[in-house]
Amino acid sequence: MMEESNQNNWEKTWENNFLEIYHSDILDMGLCVATQEYIPIAEFKVAFLEALELAKKMQWKGFVFDKSALTTFHQPSMEWYYTEWKTELLELGLSQHYKILPPIPWFKTSVDAGIEEIKSNHPDFDFSKINVTYIQSIEGLNS
Amino acid sequence: MLTQKEKESEYYKEQLSSLKDMMQRSTAYMQKLQSELSEAKEQLEIKHHEIIQSVNYAKGIQDRLIPDLETFAPYFSEANFHLSQQGAIGGDLIYARERDNSLYFGLMDCTGHGIPGALISMMGYSFLDEIVKYGSKKTSGQVMEILNKHFVEFFESRNNEPKRHDGMDGVFFHYMPAENLLCYSTVGRPLWLKTAKGWEFIKSDRLSIGGGYSGEFKCHSRTLAPGDELFIFSDGLPDQFGGKRNKKFLSKRVRQVLHQNENLSVSQKIEEMVTRLSKWKDGAEQTDDISFLGLKV
After folding, report:
1. Cβ separation of B25 and A106 shorter than 8 Å?
2. Residue A6, by phi and psi: left (phi above 0), alpha (psi -120 to 50) or beta?
């Protein structure tokens, strides 16, 4: 991410061995960048709970999850991320999410399969309240 | 306490397990999608079959509108036509009706093609036949005027639906052989006439049936002589795309075919036109309904 032109003034505010969190005061948005191929659920939760606090503090209007470094995701982490973490963001009024997927052809299919399973396990969870836009890179936010 | 190596081993083990889980879930998901797709395809095939059956049945009904060549026989030494709707059914209509030793006939091109075109052609035929068959004998212009009135009235706005301008173009004739007199009304379509003097292109009056036009539908007249020929065609013929640069066939090629084959019989001219058009199309899709009518006194 740091190789981009940083025209949106992304500033790193937190990191662990698996994820980095950035804030853009130009876009009023948060960005979480995966830095490893796989993130265990404990580290995943720590990072995203930190992002939740920053979302409250900085009053983010949108959130970007750059998963391009991932090759594998953990389904229970994804389930938590959707049904609990995103719900908390919704309560803050944040419904606009952007995702950058890894350049692996079958990864999107795996994500769709994972979402299908979440829908089946959580029939009351309203996915329509969350607006997810897939972008190719962080520069895609400016197009 | 776990050593760094053990921690790494745990990490990769968990990653591998998650990857396996992802693959299994994705495979199951793909299988489910495939099954849904197969089911949807099956449903589509059933619907497609039903639509084809329905349209083919409709074709059987619409084909009853096509006049028998025998209808022209007492009036013309040669008569033939080519009628090729873009689909099984369509909006080109060839009409012929004898009345009191005279022949009313025409080639009409209805709005649209496919099902809407076919519906308009059925309407047009019914209106036309009623106008021609019943009441006093009318000139071709009067027939067109009444037909236009019927269409305009039918498509008036009602129940908050806007007025529609659907209808037809064409050339309509009334031939009275006792006087060798041909009366005709050109409604948005031209005609070619071949007499002893040569070919004559008769332009259309700027009119249409159902287009909201309320002016005069003129009735032109000509005295015909034995050997005179006339040709009329729908705009699907010149508008057909094809050729090396995917351009329209255009009226100039219609003229070329007629002029180059002027010594051939009416049927041979039509056959030649169909051959030239087919070469022009060269397997491409038919753009519109195509009809072509030729007659020789």
Report:
1. no
2. left
pLDDT at A3: 54
What is this model's ipTM?
0.86
Q: Which of B288, B291, B231 is nearest to B83 (CA)?
A: B291
Nearest CA in chain A to B18: A74
Q: Does A38 touch chain B (CB under 8 A)?
A: yes
Among B219, B194, B24, smallest CA distance to B104 is for B219
pLDDT tens-digit map of A45-67: 999 999 999 999 999 999 999 99
Sheet strands (E) in chain B = 78-84, 92-99, 102-110, 168-176, 181-187, 191-195, 198-202, 220-223, 229-233, 241-242, 247-248, 290-296
Are B29 and A109 an interchain contact pair (Cβ–Cβ within 8 Å)? yes
Percent of chain B with pLDDT over 70: 99
Contact A110 B18 (CB under 8 A): no
Per-residue pLDDT for A2 more than 60? Answer: no
Shortest distance between the Cα of A108 and any Cα of chain B, in A, equals 10
Residues of A in contact with B34 (CB under 8 A): none
pLDDT at B105: 98
Which DSSP letter does residue B93 get?
E
Residue A141 pLDDT grade (very low, low, confident, very high; cuts 50, 70, 90): confident
* Angstrom distances, CA of residue B151 to CA of B147, B166, B234, B274: 6, 8, 20, 32
- C-alpha B213/C-alpha B191 separation (Å) is 21
Tokens representing residue B205 in the block: 């009056």
Q: Convert the pLDDT of each residue in B157-189 to its tens digit.
A: 888 888 888 999 999 999 999 999 999 999 999
DSSP assigned state of B195 = E
Q: Which residues pair with B20 in a beta bridge?
A: none
Residues of A in contact with B28 (CB under 8 A): 113
Contact (CB<8Å) B18/A72? yes
